[in-house]
Write the C-alpha cells for this entry.
Amino acid sequence: MTNTPLNKSESIASQSTLTDSQLQLSCHTHLSGHRPISPADNFSAMAKWCEENGVTHDTYGSGKLIQDFEKKIADRLGFESALFCITGTMAQATALRIACAKGGSPLVAVHPTSHILLHEDSNYQLLNSFKTIQIGSPFRTLSVDDLRSVPDKLGAAVLEIPMREIGGQCLAWDELTAFKNYCNDGEIHLHMDGARLWEVVAAYGRSEKEIAEGFNSVYVSLYKGMHGMGGAMLLGKTNFIAEARKWTSRYGGSVYHRTPYVVSAAMQFDSRIAAMPDCYRRTVWLYEVLKDYPLIVPNPSVPQANMLHLHMPVSRERAIHIRNRIAAQHGVWLFGGVRHAALPNHCSIELYVGDNLVNMPDQRLREILNLWCDKLTEEAETDSTYVNADI
Ligand SMILES: Cc1ncc(COP(=O)(O)O)c(C=O)c1O
C-alpha cells in the first residue's frame, strides 16, 4: 500500500467525471475491509491452490473438496452436518421454511433490522415460506423478554450475531444464554443469522461452537470477513440438512460445479480465522483513537466485533461529498454506503476492521482522521447554515 502524505493535495482523479465505484477503485488507501484482490490475481491464487491440493470438481455438491469443507465447518460449529448454499439469503429462506413446517407455525420472530426483512425483497412472503413478527427495538439487541412478549405459537426465532444494522452489537452472554434456554424449553426453532459470526469470537472470548450451542440451525457467510467470492454454509442436524438440500435445489440453487466458491473460501479460511483476533485488537485500539475525534461517534460505544458504525453530524449527501473529495484529492476511500440518521443533518457509515486498518500505520490513520474531521467541521457549518436559511 502506498502511503502518500495527506498534505500533498494532488488530485488523482477528477471527481466530476468518475462514478463512485471508479473513484473507489482509483484510491490507493481504503479504511474498511480487506485489501481488494483483482479477478486475475484471485483466479491465479485459486488455480495454484487447486494444483497444490489436487482439487477436482464436485458434481451438484458431491465431491471431496466441498464435502470435506462442509464437514470442517460443521465440526467447528458443533453441528452434525453442513450444506454449502450459493447465498445466505437462500440458506435462511430454506432453514426457516423447514423449521416452520416442522414447528407447526408459520410465524418467525425477527428483529426489525433483520436482513430477512430489509434486504431479501420480501422473498419469504412471495414464496409463501413463512410469516414474520417483529420483536424488540430497532436500536437495541433482542432480549428474551422481547420473545416472551409474543403470545403466539412461533415456528422459529432468528438471532443475528452480530447485529449488522446496529453497528455489530451482540447480546450480552447471559442474555444470549437466556434466549437460547427460552427457545429450547419452548421448542422454538432457534436460527442464527451468523453472516459475521467469525467477527464476534474474539470479542465474546468464546469459540464459534460455544456461541452456536443451543441453536437449531446456523448460517455463516463464506465471503464478507472470509473474503471468498460468495456463498454460505447452513448448519444443522443431518436430517434437517438433507431436507435443506432438497429445498435449495427446488429454489434453483443446485449449482453444477461449486468449486470456484468453495476454493476461494477454503484456501484462505484458516488464515482469515487466525487473523480475526488481530482485527478485534485493532478495533479496540481504534476506539481509543476515536476519543480524540468527537465528531465521529462509534456505535456501539464499546467494540463487540471487528465492525462498527460511525455517526457524523452532517447529512448523507454532505458525507458523500466529503468522501468523494477526499478520495479525489488524496486517494483515500473512507467508506462506502452512507445511511440517513433519525436526526436531521446526521448520518452513519459502516466500518469493517480488516486487513486495511490492521496494516495501516497508526500515524497514517490519525492523518486521515484529522483530514476527515476538518472536512466534517467545514461541512457541518454548511449544513447548519442551510437549515437556518430554510427556516
Ligand atoms: C446479516 C446478513 N444476513 C444475511 C445476508 C445474506 O447473505 P448473501 O449475500 O450471501 O445472500 C447478509 C448479506 O449481506 C447479511 O449481512
